[in-house]
Amino acid sequence: LGRIEAAALHSREIVRKLSLFARQAPAKLRPLSLNRVVREGMFLIESRCRKEGIELSLELDDQVPDVVGDAGQLTQVLLNLVVNAIQAMPPAGALRVVTQPGEGGAQLRVVDSGAGMPPEVCRRIFEPFYTTKDVGEGTGLGLSVVHGIVKAHGGDIDVDSTPGEGTTFIVTLPREVPHA
After folding, report:
1. What is the β-pairing status of strands 94-102 and 55-60?
2. pLDDT single digits (tens) 22-57
3. Most CB atoms closer than 10 Å: which of 47, 57, 63, 97?
4. How far apart are CA 89 and CA 172, in angstroms?
5. DSSP code per residue over 97-159
6. Of 176, 171, 117, whose CA–CA distance to 148 is shortest?
């Protein structure tokens, strides 16, 4: 029964990610505070970091402008990037989540002290079904869904990674659209 339950939950997760990837769940864009999204999202993950011996630091700039976004989808972006970072790090790693004003809006950076990725992997990580995880551990949809959500928000996502030194994901989101 435990195996059946685990397989059903795994299947549900794949279907949910495919639905998001296919954009069947449209974003409800509203002005929002990126810092608030980060604070609320990280509340869910802080205990996991403590349990795994990962030093977590939040560096939230008070000068970050509001962005136009769907809080639920941006939380999904954050959590996916953070969980991937946790999985890439050994115990006693360091994880930084940073917000700062960015060109035309705000930036979110997720910086880990993990294994890093070679350039050939970095070029493919946003492709659907591409994964470096073992069979049964990943669907290869997480980062493609993240990419789709960021693009649907009018933003950009980039990665900077060096093998042996860690990885930084940089999400740039547009500033609040002025109301006419």
Report:
1. parallel
2. 554 566 788 999 999 999 999 878 888 888 889 999
3. 97
4. 24
5. EEEEEETTEEEEEEEE-S----HHHHTTTTSTT---SPTTT--S-HHHHHHHHHHHTT-EEEE
6. 171
